## 1
Amino acid sequence: MSGTPFGFNRPGGDGDDENPQNPFGGMGGDMRQFADMLHRFADMIGGQAAGGGGGGPLNWDMAKNIARHAVVEQGDPSIVDAERRQVEEALRLADLWLDEATSVPAGIKAPKAWSRSEWIEQTLPVWAKVCDPIAARMVESMGGALGGGEIPPEMQAMAGPLIGMVQQMAGAMVGGQAGQALGALAREVVGSADVGLPLAPDGVGALLPAGVEAFGAGLEVPDEEVRLYLALREAAHQRLFAHVPWLRAHLLGAVEDYARGITVDLSGIEQAVQGLDLSNPEAIQEALGGELSLQPEETPQQKAALARLETALALVEGWVDTVVNGVAAGRLPEAEKLAEAVRRRRATGGPAERTFATLVGLELRPRRLREAAALWRALAEARGADGRDAIWDHPDLLPGADDLDDPEAFVRGGSAELSGLDSLLDESAEDAEDKREDDEGDGPEGRS
């Protein structure tokens, strides 16, 4: 094979017109071969080369198909009516119990029982928002590493189509990895909120009967108790997602900020494509088939982004733990065993940690979750459930990473901060009332 990168031979070199590994032999008009190669590539990935569903950097059509195939292959029966009723009743009862424990109103308008395939279908739009920023960096990195600068000068006229092809292939490859990760996650989740993100459509709360059954296996806890405990967790998440108006943007924005600082280790792929024959799309696909290594940048900005993201996710999970365990303790005989099962699942690297590591380059540390739960408990003890939940009234009141290290200090200082915010809100309300009265005074009856 020629030593020139990408399998090209220079015009005039030995075998330039005859070399079967040179897709541009002779440079004299055999562009049809290049076009045929692009068509073969498009056919190879199902005619959806450039981003699939939605036109983004990641081929989400491919990702969805791979994920659904992964769950169907291992068995994903449709939901029967009895399972649907059980889940809907559990979610409704969970919301009734939570009404007594938190001032945050119920958030579930449509309780649902999902199969694993339905979970993939329903949560994919949010996964696209979470993963597209890092996918864009992957595709750009691969296009830069495998494109322009590596192509001989005499081939630069064809660099654009070539780099475009490589980026399309990169999008398909990343889509394949995302599909595998989501397929694995769908086999383990119990509801829509396992990873702490608002994945379900607005107003929807969902449990997966197959996931609930798998969670309870070996616990020796009645199925109804397992279902009710997990319904409490799902319903508690949905209260925050529905009634803390800034929380969705805060969480997804934190993921995006972190993704901006991710770099992609391409050393393995660069080595695999040295001297590759571009007239063989199957060989290119095989060379690009390995997993990419995501590396966070060690900069102050990236560390701050990581702290914000970890803290935000931990605060959501910590609040849910605190509220749910308080409600379950007096109603479910095996509540402590179920809470321990959730903690053990996290500590051994549950689906949230693995999926974030695969798709975003992040592992959510269980230690942060425990500290967040301790902070919410301390707030409830000092100020009651209403005072605890008032922290969600404004993003400026939300604890930071340092506050998780010293919950008691936050509780002592939080009262003053909350009082200050209440004063500002009261002043704003008074100003609005004064303006309304002035406007009424300027009406026909108030003018002389």
## 2
Amino acid sequence: MKKVYEESLGDVLRRAIEEADMADTLDEYRAAALWPRIVGEEIAARTGKPYVLDGVMTISVKAAPLRHELMMSRSQLIKCINAPFQRTVVKEIRFIG
């Protein structure tokens, strides 16, 4: 008789992500998705869609005054983005024009 092991879909996906060594990449996508919640919908609407690569989040900001203000708040933004992960996912934020 054949043994059948039951696993939840979530467990199978978690194991597949770990075996493919994709956990860090997935966390980078999640960190980018947090941007609107961190800065609010109004500011998020005035910035480009962020992306994270190798721990560096890059965000396009056309308005120079807003870019400057965000640059001044960079360390606090990094803390807020990393808080849900309880580890460092984003090491740096770059604002580009």
## 3
Amino acid sequence: MQAESKDFFLKSIDLMRSLDPDQRPLWGQMGPQHMVEHIVGAWRISNGRARVQTVLPEDEVAVRREFLFSDRDYQKNIANPVLGSKKPTLRKPSLDAAIDQLEDEMNAFFTFHDAHPGAIETHPVFGDLDFEGWLTFQTKHMKHHLHQFDLI
């Protein structure tokens, strides 16, 4: 699954590079750069560069994990329990710079997990995830946002 996932993620970078910085999403409030920077945050947690705690009660984490490991896709306009409805301030000077960081964070994920087999990193909503759990999350999360901008 690793090679197949890595290929999907690298293709995702190419798709994101085709975005116009002013492109409107099919749903939601995030523009292209907000979306990419949002995804960067998840990769930073998965590759050990950022650490967070789970923000939900244990019983709610269990319900959300059932969703994560199911075949169901994220719903359109789903509320992020960490962000809510607020749009965070952009951190990068441009969409291209945000995509460059995303590519770096993706590569760091594979490097980190190759060097630390069995590493567990905590997702704020889904709890502790190992390499395979993070691949599952990242794939589902990336597809959701690629659909949001009609890239797949």
